[in-house]
Amino acid sequence: TDDSSFCLRIFKIIVIGDSGVGKTCLTHRLWSGRFPEKSEATIGVDFREKVLEVEGEWIKIQMWDTAGQERYRKSMVQHYYRGAHAIFYVYDVTDERSFQSLPVWIEECRRHSRGHDVPSVLVGNKCDLHGASRVSGDVARKFAELHGMPFFQTSAKNPQVSDNPEDILAMVAQRLKNQKPLALNPPLGTEDLCAPNTEKRGACGC
Ligand SMILES: Nc1nc2c(ncn2[C@@H]2O[C@H](COP(=O)(O)OP(=O)(O)OP(=O)(O)O)[C@@H](O)[C@H]2O)c(=O)[nH]1
């Protein structure tokens, strides 16, 4: 047998954001290719993993779909962030409040990742809806630039109308695999902050 097949690098991605923005649906879309008919509030964390081939290397992606509701997440917060290689910050494009909450999520991440800024992407979800209070794409893009994150607008329900969630994951996986910053043009002075957290990289028993 080929021993290298048991020697996968593992990358942990956590999905963060207010309750109801669609974290579970996005994760479900990525793992099953479908939009779930029913989605209930996540309690604690929902954990999925899969093996992806990226440019000839098989890597294992672990996706941690976290609870947005405070009462379902309190005791788990440390576990979410420990060893995370990347974060999807998700907001709902029809819900201004979920966008306004982002600095709080970013701050929480900083507190728990011991001074490291974990490479992140900003994902506006529910682009298939045309609600009155849509968060401006330009404003969100500027926010993402300010924080050195690539920005995507997507829909777990109807990926055709927007960036495809699978493409977002593929891009993140490719950058993690190559240990490149997630943002193409990190803002001046933040290059180190965008570098992948390599401390727990390569969880390989070989
Ligand atoms: N129209 C539309 N609805 C969506 C989309 N994504 C999620 N939803 C709906 O939004 C609601 C909340 O989705 P969830 O995925 O459970 O939200 P969550 O962020 O995981 O919520 P918590 O687990 O409480 O943190 C559900 O009713 C979904 O059907 C989307 O892309 N488009």
Automatic annotation (TrEMBL):
It is found in: Endomembrane system. One of its GO terms (biological process) is Rab protein signal transduction. The keyword GTP-binding applies. The keyword Transport does not apply. Transmembrane segments: none annotated. InterPro entries: P-loop_NTPase, Rab33A/B, Small_GTP-bd, Small_GTPase. Its main location: membrane. Keywords: GTP-binding, Lipoprotein, Membrane, Nucleotide-binding, Prenylation. Coiled coil: none annotated. Pfam families: Ras. NCBIfam families: small_GTP (TIGR00231). This is RAB33B, member RAS onco family.
